[in-house]
Amino acid sequence: MMSQVISAYRIKKIESIGEMTAVSQEDVVNHTRTIVQGLEALRNEHTTILAGLNTALEHSPTQAQQPVQNVPEKAGILQKSLDQIELGLSEAQIMLALASHLQTVEAEKQKQRAQVRRLCQENMWLRDELASTQLKLQASEQRVAQLEEDKKHLDFMASIRKYDADVQEGEAGHDQPAKEKQEETSTDYFPDDDGDERSSLKKSGDFGSQASLALSPTPPAQFAQQVSAGYEIPARLRTLHNLVIQYASQGRYEVAVPLCKQALEDLERTSGHDHPDVATMLNILALVYRDQNKYKEAANLLNDALAIRKKTLGDNHPAVAATLNNLAVLYGKRGKYKDAEPLCKRALEIREKVLGRDHPDVAKQLNNLALLCQNQGKYEEVERYYQRALEIYENKLGPDDSNVAKTKNNLASAYLKQGKYKEAEILYKQVLTRAHEKEFGAIDGDNKPIWQVAEEREENKNSGIDEKKNGSSSTGPYGEYGGWHKAAKVDSPTVNTTLKNLGALYRRQGKFEAAETLEDCAVRSKKELSEPMSAAVQARPSSPTRHHDDPRHQHSSTGIKKIFHAFGFQS
């Protein structure tokens, strides 16, 4: 009976294998798995029956000799069937492993085909680039030949001028003013980094107070960081990017804006709208518009750049975080703090995920988020964000980094708005003490920080002791607290701002003598820093007013076209 069952099962298996030859590989694998399950069930049944026969053989009674004699024969048959089942299971497992291997090979084959297609596309692109470069080389060689002819002509004209002294003097007199004009033009429009930073730190970097500074050009370093954060600018755009930054930092928007627009049109024509380079150029143009107070146009460009970067780089790319941060700052300048806060939090989340929770860029984002919350009166969150940013800066950059002092100033400002004067005073004193130690060494009885000198003058104002006249302070590290200019320069303008803030806090507490000491020191420091700059301005001839008859304005369109031809763009 058992042999008939096995034979029927084998016939069924052969028939199923014949059917599988006409089906797909996936169907073959599914049928094989089904057969494996059947064989395992059959194996378990055989094992159970064989165990029952062995048990019956061991405990069989003596009076039933005839049945017992058939048991060994049945057990042998069952054991042979069980061996054949094990063989079938092994063959099925081999078939499954072979199918898995074939799937892997097929996937690798498809991958190789995709790579071949990509390499073919890259090869075509390189051929196009090579042809374009060859055309540019030919044009450059023609230009060089033309310039060589022009040079020969100029050399000939110069040899003729040698015999005309009057003409030579006239040329020299004409060249000198032009050179002076060029020099004063190149320096007159660069912003004062110290003044810009000092203004931006006023009121702890409040977004509302910064909105009034939008007409001042963004410093080049800050502009470049806002544009390129998290995304490496391609070599083709790098020189153009630096040129736009230079014009924008000088306030020459009539050149920077057309330059950006023309580059943007060329990039969209050659690379398509959804390209990271297009997003970078949109970001640059948005920041130029932001400096011009064109907030609506800047917001539209930043949203477009954000969509492109999300699509091409992914939602969690540092460049996406940079664009979100720029958009949040723009909303903050417009007073839309509730709209800016989720953008800033999303930028923080990306930077924490990509860079780690203790990265300095995370601390910068925490500072921005704290400013937004401060303008909404969320002081509990403000303190938490500032304290975490402060911890990151101190652990990663050290206690002497300028960001530590700036963050302490911002946190102290938040304390002041809550009436926590003691906590704010402690932070201001920490900043001034650290600046003093950096310049004058460890603090002791003869080497006191400026705030301690101010408080001693406050205590002694009614005792008849005048430190300005008795000369006692002149023996210290700075005479009459004026030598603290050097320490103020260590972290200018943050230390100078701290002097003013602590002085204002002293006045609020009625400590007028101490307040005057700090304020006088801050004024002297500012005066000493500004005197060399004033002398340099007075030494130069007065800069010409930028009227419409300025040659730079008359030829700005022509200059832009020349710039684009130089970079390979089409104007």
TrEMBL record:
InterPro entries: Kinesin_light, TPR-like_helical_dom_sf, TPR_rpt. GO terms for molecular function: kinesin binding. Residues 102-157 form a coiled coil. Keywords: Coiled coil, Cytoplasm, Cytoskeleton, Microtubule, Motor protein, Repeat, TPR repeat. One of its GO terms (biological process) is microtubule-based movement. TPR repeats lie at residues 279-312, 363-396. GO terms for cellular component: cytoplasm; kinesin complex; microtubule. It is found in: Cytoplasm, Cytoskeleton. Its main location: cytoplasm. Pfam families: TPR_10 (PF13374), TPR_12 (PF13424). Residues 168-184, 456-470 have a biased composition (Basic and acidic residues). It comes from the Eukaryota. SMART domains: TPR (SM00028). Kinesin is a microtubule-associated force-producing protein that play a role in organelle transport. Oligomeric complex composed of two heavy chains and two light chains. Belongs to the kinesin light chain family. This is Kinesin light chain. It comes from Hyalella azteca. The gene is LOC108668399.
